[in-house]
Amino acid sequence: MSLPLSIIMQKKSGFTCIILHIYLLVFCMDIVSCGTINDTKTLISDLLSDYNINVRPIANQSQAVNVTVQAYIKSIQEFNEVEGKFSFIGALVVMWEDANMIWSPALYGHVYEVTLLYPNVWIPELVLSSPSDDVDSLGQKWNRIRYLYNGLAIWVPVDLIESTCSVNIRNYPFDTQKCKTSFNSFGYNDYEVQLVAATDKFSLDVYQENSLWLIEKTEVKVTETGGSSQIDLIIHLNRKPSFVIINVVMPILFLSLLNVLVFLLIPESGERVSYCITVLLAIAVFMTIVSDMLPRSSEPVPIISFKLMIDMIISSFIVFVAIQNLTWYHRDENVPIPPWLKSVYKHLSCVCCRHKKIFNNTKVKAISVSEFEKDPIEKKISRLVEEHVEETEVTWKKLSMMLDRVALIGFTAATFASFVIFLVVTAVSSS
């Protein structure tokens, strides 16, 4: 009764562990019914009697111990963009052949497998080479290693893995992150211990969805670093932007629109300046909140920081225009209006109301006696009425009202343009 290693170790199939578990489950009944406690004690005593954990468990010491690794991920625990820290609860199914752990089941009451604490046997020390805190090897002292009678060792260390991650928040909150967690067989050269990836990606069979991050894809690669074998576990994360849009981007848009409404307040209320300054401070608070959510790095600068800066500039211009408007509204009417302001006012008035003509002075065209003699008097009087336009006087208050209308339309358009451009640029850059 034997299990071909080619079935267990094949990389082509992604069901290596499932096949193994089915195998163990099928033969577990025979183990329980045939093996006794004394058989197991005798077996373990014989196996460990001459066992040395400092010697690699391979008959030919000139060859490397092939260690096959299959990565599992249970859940994403934390992704801290500010500190560049990525942690997840995961497991590695580690398998190798131990030449010291081969026995004949018939001699030990048909015991086909045993489990041992890993400090008592040789294991391939897998050290996290990209730690966010202390450097430590994978696994705990209470972990057990399961050995099959043909020498196959199966070790399943489950742990909270905390590693560093290079964060790129240029397209925040539509960003995609690539986090690499590396394990290295420190203490052994690549010709002594060779790591082998069971599959080229993580197993997501037991993965639980995260509320903020979506796993786009995973990769498992084996590289050589510093003369030792290293396995890289790469996770591509795609942020779910709904939370940031609802709690950060949309409130900023609404605050910007509220700031524009200052031009609908009547100047006599006396609340214009305090209103727009209050909104300006609220936008500044949101800038502080967003900056606390992002890493302290200037490369690359997130697009949302430029968007917030543009909103701050727009809000500052609104405060300036509101103050200038109040200055015009309360200015003495005896103060002359500059000609260029009158020209601007007339042009904007004509654009708004093209059926009206505005002039500074009422002028009546002089009609000579010869013209009266040529045409009937009724036609000349009609021409006078048609060409006569009542003067519309330009005042500081009218200039202030015109500035209110222009500022309301202009700043509203600028606010919407800033928001739309931000969404388009970030969405296109992240695609």
Key phrases:
rod-shaped; alpha+beta; 39% helix; Methane Monooxygenase Hydroxylase, Chain G, domain 1; Acetylcholine Binding Protein, Chain: A; 4-stranded antiparallel beta sheet; 2 domains; disordered N terminus; 431 residues
Describe what this molecule looks like in 3D.
A hairpin with a 4-residue loop joins strand 1 (65-80) and strand 2. With 431 residues, the protein is α+β, with helices and mostly antiparallel strands. The longest helix has 35 residues, at 396-430. The two termini are 54 Å apart. 39% of the residues lie in helices and 23% in strands. It has 2 domains: 5-240, Distorted Sandwich (Acetylcholine Binding Protein, Chain: A), CATH 2.70.170; 243-334 and 401-430, Neurotransmitter-gated ion-channel transmembrane domain (Methane Monooxygenase Hydroxylase, Chain G, domain 1). The protein has helices at 5-9, 16-34, 37-48, 242-260, 272-292, 303-329, 339-352, 369-374, 377-387, 396-430; strands at 65-80, 85-102, 113-117, 127-128, 144-148, 150-155, 158-164, 176-184, 193-197, 213-225, 228-239.
Poorly predicted runs: 1-33, 354-367, 384-391
The helix content is 25-40%
End-to-end Cα distance, whole Å, is 54 Å
The pLDDT mean sits at: 78
Number of strands: 11
- General form: rod-shaped
CATH architecture of the largest domain: Distorted Sandwich
> Any idea of the CATH class of the largest domain?
Mainly Beta
- Strand percentage lies at 15-25%
Q: How many domains?
A: 2
Main sheet properties: 7 strands, mixed
Number of helices: 10
What is the H-and-E element order?
A: HHHEEEEEEEEEEEHHHHHHH
Q: By helix and strand content, what is the structural category?
A: alpha+beta
CATH topology heading of the largest domain:
Acetylcholine Binding Protein, Chain: A
Cα-based radius of gyration, to the nearest Å:
40 Å
What do we call the CATH homologous superfamily of the largest domain?
A: Neurotransmitter-gated ion-channel ligand-binding domain
